[in-house]
Automatic annotation (TrEMBL):
It catalyses: N(6)-dimethylallyladenosine(37) in tRNA + (sulfur carrier)-SH + AH2 + 2 S-adenosyl-L-methionine = 2-methylsulfanyl-N(6)-dimethylallyladenosine(37) in tRNA + (sulfur carrier)-H + 5'-deoxyadenosine + L-methionine + A + S-adenosyl-L-homocysteine + 2 H(+). This is tRNA-2-methylthio-N(6)-dimethylallyladenosine synthase. Coiled coil: none annotated. Signal peptide: none annotated.
Length: 472
């Protein structure tokens, strides 16, 4: 697709700023101090989108609140990746009927991945009359205009057309305070893994211009952010649509030249596009954290084919072996699905054996959830949930033992961490992360927050390490 069609023109963004101004003026005329609440579900990309929504709300004159009861505008920024995620949103929407009863002027909006599903927007139209505004990820940048339409027309507004995906640069962002920041480097997905809804709701892959990413990372480092994660559904295909031959490894190399004290991470990586060049670059670049999230999904070649993943178990193992040969200290994590339609117990155990073979530091484990509209949802799914749950429990047992053993091996060692906040634990009141993103709860005072320090690890369990600061 031509670049002009992908980038939202500056004139359009200027128009949106005019709508922000109109909304601000409307509240000023009423001498009102409006509040807004954004509740985000789902992955980090959605969190990053939520931060842009908050930025636009602030530009419209809203003050942010975490309490939907007191908010004039409530936005549910939703996820569609599993049925459970959708159920939670419908539950929350139900609860909002009460807040709306108390405050009939309240505007309720639903956005994010679920909103882009026709099935969902129709259900909202029919059965959730208290929802005023529904818009999908494609329309995120038009939020000021959509909100204005709701205020002006007093009608329900739906903006869920299946448009070609765009990139809007320069939207305002409200970031989490602290040391961590997220930077989307690309949007959408072209992979159509057969179980996954994301390509249907987020559109085709489009990469931001390298210069836009570089200046955002530079600004974040200058503003004191120390742990920056580059986001994309498959960052390894970054640049494919730019047509210049510039790839993700090139982007990492350029970011690495930005001076300062910080770590760069990235997620997710698709094994089919993970190259030796990427691992060579990671090993060479001092700011790039030695941590890799490389989802494998299944240890069975037949299931991988059915999932349309386009790599084999052996190719996956080769990638990990190559990466570890360059970076022996590499922390490796992954995503895995148990119970894909037709997966047998023997195939699920191939997944368990791959987990044993690789020895992941941590794993995000999911029971397959059929997503209407995807290919896998049409496949026969003969095994009952209770049976799949047993395989799942076996996987967890193996992984938990491994995580605990890998964590135990840290005890007595001194490692560098970035202190990122308070832990809420009285004895170990600080929370910090190693370069490999392992959680370390620490003894120490708040003055350490935001600093890279060395700590001696004194204890561990499956989920966390415990330690105390040492002088170097
Ligand atoms: N693009 C990333 C990738 O490929 O790794 C992340 C995709 S998704 C947001 C995160 C994880 O959810 C996937 O890696 C997969 O393990 C899981 N997932 C996606 N669709 C699923 C489904 N229908 N049922 C269960 N888990 C699913
Ligand atoms: Fe979904 Fe596959 Fe795309 Fe990840 S790469 S978002 S799992 S389709
Ligand atoms: Fe969910 Fe959409 Fe992310 S479906 S996992 S919020 S891309």
């Amino acid at each position: 697709m031509e670049r002009e069609r992908v980038l939202v023109p500056e004139a359009e963004l200027e128009r949106q700023r005019e709508f922000e101004e109109r909304i601000r003026a409307m509240f000023a005329a009423r001498q009102a101090h409006p509040l807004a609440c954004v509740d985000t579900f789902g992955c980090q990309q959605n969190v990053a989108d939520g931060q842009k929504l908050m930025g636009m709300l602030e530009s419209c004159g809203f003050t942010l609140t975490a309490d939907p009861k007191e908010a004039d505008v409530v936005i549910l920024n939703t996820c569609a990746v599993r049925e459970h995620a959708e159920d939670r949103v419908f539950g929350n929407l139900g609860a909002l009927t009460h807040t709306k009863k108390e405050n009939p002027e309240q505007i309720i909006a639903l956005c994010g991945c679920m909103a882009q599903e026709q099935r969902v927007s129709e259900r909202i139209k029919k059965s959730y009359p208290h929802v005023n505004l529904v818009f999908g990820p494609h329309a995120l940048w038009k939020f000021p205009e959509l909100l204005w339409q709701v205020y002006e027309s007093r009608r329900r507004v739906f903006s869920v057309q299946d448009e070609h995906g765009t990139i809007a640069e320069g939207l305002p962002v409200v970031r989490e305070k602290g040391v961590k920041a997220w930077v989307s480097i690309m949007y959408g997905c072209n992979n159509f893994c057969s179980y996954c809804i994301v390509p249907y709701v987020r559109g085709r892959e489009r990469s931001r211009d390298p210069q836009a990413v570089l200046s955002e990372v530079r600004e974040l480092v200058e503003a004191g952010y120390r742990d920056i994660t580059l986001l994309g559904q498959n960052v390894n295909s970054y640049g494919n649509d730019l047509g210049s031959g510039y790839d993700f490894a090139d982007l990492l190399s350029e970011i690495d030249r930005i001076p300062g004290d910080y770590w760069i991470r990235f997620m997710s990586s698709h094994p089919k596009d993970a190259t030796r060049k990427l691992f060579d670059t990671m090993a060479r670049c001092s700011h790039v954290a030695k941590q890799l999230h490389l989802p494998f999904q299944s240890g069975s070649d037949r299931v991988l084919r059915e999932m349309n993943r386009r790599y084999t178990r052996e190719q996956y193992l080769e990638l990990i072996a190559y990466a570890r040969s360059l970076m022996p200290e590499l922390v490796v994590t992954s995503d895995v699905i148990i119970g894909f339609p037709g997966e047998t117990e023997a195939e699920a155990m191939e997944t368990v054996s791959l987990v044993e073979e690789v020895g992941f530091d941590a794993l995000f484990t999911f029971l397959y959830s059929p997503r209407p509209g995807t290919k896998a949802a049409e496949l026969p799914d003969p095994f009952p949930r209770a049976e799949k749950q047993k395989w799942f429990d076996k996987l967890l047992e193996v992984q938990n033992a491994k995580s605990a053993a890998l964590h135990a091996a840290y005890v007595g060692k001194t490692v560098q961490v970035l202190v990122d906040g308070e832990s809420g634990d009285g004895e170990f009141p600080l929370s910090s992360r190693t370069e490999g993103n392992r959680l370390v709860r620490l003894k120490g005072g708040k003055e350490l927050i935001g600093k890279f320090i060395h700590v001696r690890i004194t204890g561990s369990n499956t989920w966390a390490l415990y330690g105390e600061a040492v002088q170097r």
